[in-house]
Amino acid sequence: MKIVDKIIQIKADSMPPKTEFIEQEIKAQGIDPIRWAIIDTKENTLILSVAGYEI
Asked: What are the residues facing 12 on neighbouring strands?
């Protein structure tokens, strides 16, 4: 297994988004998250710092 550390963007339908929604979107981008943090927002777009296992 390879661990990756990336900055990703996801679009949320409503603010604040639920944890389950965020983790589902991270997995949709090919990462099984170990940890993540919201580092910025732009309207309904979240910018996340994510570390996890590459799927």
From this structure: none
Digit-coded pLDDT (tens) for 22-32: 999 999 999 99
Tell me the C-alpha distance between 55 and 22, whole Å: 16
> Global pTM?
0.89
3-class secondary structure, 1: coil
Give the angle subtended at the CA of 53 by the CAs of 39 and 51, to the nearest 5°: 20
DSSP 6-33: EEEEEE-SSSSPPHHHHHHHHHHTTEEE
